[in-house]
Amino acid sequence: xxxxxxxxxxxxxxxxxxxxxxxxxxxxxxxxxxxxxxxxxxxxxxxxxxxxxxxxxxxxxxxxxxxxxxxxxxxxxxxxxxxxxxxxxxxxxxxxxxxxxxxxxxxxxxxxxxxxxxxxxxxxxxx
Amino acid sequence: xxxxxxxxxxxxxxxxxxxxxxxxxxxxxxxxxx
Lengths: 127, 34
What we know:
The structure holds 2 protein chains of 2 kinds.
Chain A: E1 4-11, E2 25-30, H1 35-61, H2 69-76, E3 83-90, E4 93-96, H3 103-111, E5 117-123
Parallel strand pairs in A: 1-5
Antiparallel strand pairs in A: 1-2, 3-4, 3-5
Chain B: E1 4-11, E2 14-21
Antiparallel strand pairs in B: 1-2
């Protein structure tokens, strides 16, 4: 069995504005998870949360059946490419993490301290 | 923590489980050591 990794997952302070995603996420997963797994997880959670709030809004306005139909389709469309994951390497500097890296490797290579791994996320910027 | 969300994510046939809590205290082992 793979060992467990503890993560504090925050919006990128420079690339994400406060209204967009303000939630700090406290996450545990196994060390064999890759950065792509983490990115896809984030996309799924945010899609679910946005669809739930949209459904609640529809219920409040309409109150009719079928209000959540559009939410299921957006959750199915999530991709690990939607968010880019960063780690803070020095004061004010952030390094993009390759999607194929395991969190165990990120922990050993970049973090090296015995406390939860602190990572940052931002929507992937299209070139 | 009062509530923990459990989610499985699969990429290239590798499935990993994520657990997320609303607060860190009582959820992270190392948090208690500080």
